[in-house]
Amino acid sequence: MRNYLNSINPFIDSLFFDAKDDARMMRTDIIERENEYVMNIEVPAVEKKDIKVSLNDSKLTISVNRVEAEEEGSYLLKERRYGTYSRTYYVGEDVKFKNISAKLDNGVLTLTIQKTKEEEKEDQYVEIQ
C-alpha cells in the first residue's frame, strides 16, 4: 500500500465509494503504522468459519454469513440483521496475500497488512486464526 500524502488514502476512498448498508454492519477502524496497516472490523455474533477474507484486483473483501438462532415466542422488536453481507476495501496494487494476517477475537476481526514494495500478483484467501 502506498502512502498517499498528496491524494486521498485508498482506505478512505473505500468508505465513500463502496459504502452501502453492509458497511454499517461491519464498522471499521483503520490504523496506519510505520510498517503495517491494522484494520479492526466489527463482526458481532459471527464465528470465524462464517467469515471469508479475500484479495482480488487490489480489493480486500470481507464476506460474512450471520445465521439466525431459532427463538421460542414472538418478537416484539427485532433489529439485528442476519444473512450474508460483505464489504470491500480498495487497498492498492502493492498489497499481497502473503502480507495479510487475520484474527477474530470478541466479535472484532483484526487484519494486519504488512507494507511491501514487491511486484507480484496473487488472488488468494486469508485464513482467520
CATH T-level topology: Immunoglobulin-like
For the largest beta-sheet, the strand count, sense and barrel status come to: 4 strands, antiparallel
How does the overall form come out from the CA principal axes? elongated
Number of domains: 1
CATH class group:
Mainly Beta
Computed over alpha carbons, the radius of gyration is 16 Å
Strand content: 35-45%
Oligomer: single chain
| Tally of individual helices | 2
The sequence of SSEs as H and E is: HHEEEEEEEE
- The level of helicity is 10-25%
Total strands: the figure is 8
Measured between the Cα atoms of the first and last residue, the distance is 23 Å
Which class of secondary structure composition applies to the elements? mainly beta
Q: What is the correct CATH architecture?
A: Sandwich
What strand order characterises the main sheet?
1-2-7-6
Overall average residue pLDDT? 79
Sequence stretches where pLDDT stays below 50 over 5 or more residues: 1-8, 15-19
What does this structure look like?
This protein is mainly beta and 129 residues long. It has one domain: Immunoglobulin-like (Sandwich). Helix content is 10%, strand content 39%. The chain has 2 helices and 8 strands. The strands form 2 sheets. Strands 1-2-7-6 form a 4-stranded antiparallel beta sheet, with no helix packed on it. Strand 1 and strand 2 form a beta hairpin. The chain starts with 9 loop residues before the first helix and ends with a strand. The N terminus is likely disordered.
